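Late entry, evening session. Most of the bench is empty. Finally got around to the prediction I had been postponing all week. Sequence below, unchanged from the version circulated by S.P.
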Amino acid sequence: MIFNDLKVENLTMLSSKEIPITVILLAGGKSSRIGLNKDKGKMKLLGVNLIDRVISNILSAGLFLEKDILVVGPKKRFPNHQLVIEDIYPQKGPLGGIFSGLYNSKTFYNLVIGYDMPFIEPKLIRYMVEHIDNYDAVIPTHSQGLFEPLCAIYSKNCLEIMEHNIKNGKLSVRCIFPFLKIRLINEEEIKNYDPNLQSFFNINFKSDFSRAEELDRKRSENKC
């Protein structure tokens, strides 16, 4: 497979608002664990579809427009979104989704977010973008070595090792890290913007959705 021939020069001289970045929204999961025979992205969290809630949080960072969002998932499930692409290598998990998004993206750097993460902190997104500094990837880490690869920034430099691992059945995203120049965002840095690490809360089960509703109510009360 031939990757797009994109080069980025003098990124260190650009502000976070000037660095062109695509948002890759991973939405390829089957939602089977949540039950109820529903696509979890369309389940409502305090009256708002989960996927729309995630997009709203991302746009609140002030770095992106809706046209910058690329959804990776079945096209028939997302007819109302401008840019939707399907997996190049089906059923390869998040790594396959990230690869497909990177390959189809028109920008060198890309913010990857799971579509089931309703509490992404916009200020954390801005901080991550500000620390790209020509790294291949920017990955949050906390809790003594837990990586958050589905709330991270990846460059197209990652494509080669991703495709190599996909073809060899190594589907854990973290298996690509030793081959890349990575900027880790540590827990102390994260907590400056997200003290409770809620950005990384994701919804897989019905109980997670109930907890998300509870968290959302508490967050709304704290804003009053």
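Two things to note before I forget:
The domain at 19-223 is CATH 3.90.550.10 (Spore Coat Polysaccharide Biosynthesis Protein SpsA; Chain A).
The radius of gyration is 17 Å.
Will write this up properly tomorrow.
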